[in-house]
Amino acid sequence: MAESDVKVRFTCAQDVVPTCETHYEQCNNFFCNDCDKFICIECAKKDHREHDWNTVGNISKQRKSDLSRKSQEIREGHLPKLTEKMAKIDSLMEQNLAHRDAELSRLETHYQNIVTSLTQVVEDRKKELSRGLETKNKTLAEIQRKLKTKAVKLQDTMDDLKKSNSLSDYNLLNVDCALNRVLPISDGEDLEDLKYSLHFKEGSLTKESVELLLGTVKDYDDFTLTKIRSFRHDKSDIICLEVDFYSNAVLVNSNQTYWDTVNTKGKLKSRNEFYSHINDFAVLPNGDIIFSENDSHSIQLHSIQMSANDATRTVADTSPLTPEGVCLTSEGDILVTMADPEDENATGLVKMFSMRGKVKRKYEYDSSGERLFKLPFRVAQNKNSDICVLDSLDTEHGVLHTISSEGHTQFIYKGVKSLQHPLYAADIVCDDICNIILMDAKNHHIHLLDSAGNFLKFLTRDEGDRRHSLSLALSGDILWAGGHNGYLSVYKYTNNS
What are 354-368's pLDDT values in tens digits? Predict the structure, then answer.
């Protein structure tokens, strides 16, 4: 009997002893613990000489106590875990089905919106084409009416001329004068100019344009975050984090009087002293720093090209409000969140300044007159011009409130149900295709959202990343994460789609 034919089932006290596959004349009266297989005496002497083997009876006695323990482990541990995992799989399959149905519903809704919009556009085009007909034909009808009037007068005059032999001299002259008034009959308006002149020009209709209009299907499994390196830069929390032109991290630690530039290998490239209480900052393309200064309630510009005495100047005064988050817009302006942390009425708002300090836009109220924000503390502009604002509702809750460049609420992201703790959004960046990457300080996750605020996935949810949950910065495919006690992580952010 082949060894593979031996079944792990003990139906009686006496089983048929199998013979050895290699030594057919020998029975497998021994068992090797190292290989977990039955062997014969010849196998024991040769291939298993250095192994832990013994007679089947002795090994059986040794393992009887282990079988009792294993049975308990299976009964109390493994089986419940398998049952729990199978239940999770059932739940996940149901969730997947629900998510698929939700995405199909979104597609159908978008399609119906396109059909509704196209129908409206078609009706508008029909009205335009009809108005062109009405205008030209109205003019032609008026010309025709005048011509009919002239024709009647000419016919009457011709009838009078037929009687010219019997007309008196006075009547003849009156007829001739009447004829002169009708004649000559000029061409009048150029009828060529009154031809129907509107023409419908078809738009470009290609498979690509239709797909662009309808939208695309993205697999968010294609978006991955791979840790390149993790290191400790300092001992204090990294409260502000940006990147320079070379993808180096520019950071500010809490209670420090300098900002550091660090490369992806953890090497300190430069250290710049400042004597300000910085809440947030942004790096300009030339390396200069725009930052919000807590004590003076102002926005400051620090130039790396100037001497220390002249390096920093005030761009804008935000008094009496305290400036918090700072970012640069695609047009080169500055977005600043500001609030009075001591005000119970929550007077938070966002302002857009020019580089010269002129207020260009203020975002404070929605269209119904309600306040948009409570205590906004971070801001970023997405590639689609949306303004993403992190708003602190209290010490335990921080949400993402995204508004359009005109100030209309686009969405408010409050997290997902699977979170252990309420969402507290600590920092935010946007990638090149308008996805939003959000740092969750309470749950220590990095969330990935699409531009409409739909949750796609957790990019990280590793317990080991708890130390890297305060700040984010993105440059191309390099994502930096800063956290407590000076820890920094460098990730490669990949979109395989």
Answer: 999 999 999 999 989
Residue indicated by tokens 């990343």: 465
Annotation: CATH topology of 3-51: Double Stranded RNA Binding Domain (3.30.160)
pLDDT score for 395: 83
User: 387-392 and 375-381 as β-strands: parallel, antiparallel, unpaired?
Assistant: antiparallel
For 485, which DSSP code?
A: G
CATH of domain 220-495: 2.120.10.30
Q: Residue 319: helix, strand or coil by DSSP? A: coil
Q: How far apart are CA 322 and CA 379, in angstroms?
A: 14
Does 188 score more than 60 pLDDT?
A: no
Query: Which pLDDT score is estimated for 6?
Result: 40
DSSP letters for 178-242:
HHHHH-S----S-GGGGS------PPP--HHHHHHHH-----GGGEEEEEEEEEE--SS-EEEEE
Residue extents of the structural domains in the chain:
3-51, 115-214, 220-495
What is d(CA 35, CA 312) in angstroms, rounded to the nearest whole number?
A: 74
Same fold, 3-51 and 220-495: no
